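In response to reviewer comment 3 from the previous cycle, which asked for concrete evidence that the modeling workflow produces usable outputs, we include below a single protein chain processed end to end. The sequence was submitted unchanged, and the resulting structure tokens are shown without manual editing.
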Amino acid sequence: MKIIALDSSGLAASVAILNEDILIAEYTVDFKRTHSETLLPMLDEIMSRTEQQMEDVDAIAVAAGPGSFTGLRIGSATAKGLGLALDIPVIAVPTTEGLAYNLWGAKGLVCPLMDARRHQTYTGIYSFAADGDMRTLREACAVDVDEIIGDLNARGGEVTFLGDGVPVFLEDIKSKCNIPYRFAPQHLNRQRASSVGALAYLYLRGGRAESADMPRPDYLRLSQAERERLEQKKAAQPASEGKV
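The workflow returned the following structure tokens.
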């Protein structure tokens, strides 16, 4: 079974091709360019370099959120377009699950941290069983970083942090994390399409897939523009009360 995997949920853009238990190719760029400029050219490049044919692809996997609103829309639109054109299923993989799967087999807790601004993080808590199965201890969520650190402290043990939120919340981790902690190395600490594809393969075997026109990005919260619009609306309400 051949899968194309896409991840444009964060700062890094990543594309991979997997066939059963083999990673055929992966192309990841973490640079200051928009994903709309990079994602499809990256896919074209690895398909060409590895002499793969689109008609041989069995499914599309995509990091479905949480993450950058724009990045998620780009990834979702690309996955849907490919899925509809090829008439194959799309597997939506939560971004934090994909990140945690980078550290397959890690001991203790695994905690992805993505910067969600305003001292908040997109995060979750995961662990790996002795047989390698990934367990979700806390579902993907958008919370204040103090809350997730408090949760980790209450669970005890040790934790490995990864994600673009690590440098943002480093001082919070150092001052507030009361359990042993460490950080993933640089080759594993950002989104990787290969992890999204590997999880998608497991999900597909378990019957977890959708038609190409069904998956929607999981933003977990309103966009900044939507929040500001609601705040403006609330601020304007008292002034209008009592008017005829």
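The first strand starts at residue 2 and ends at 7. We consider this sufficient to address the reviewer's concern, and the full set will be provided in the supplementary archive.
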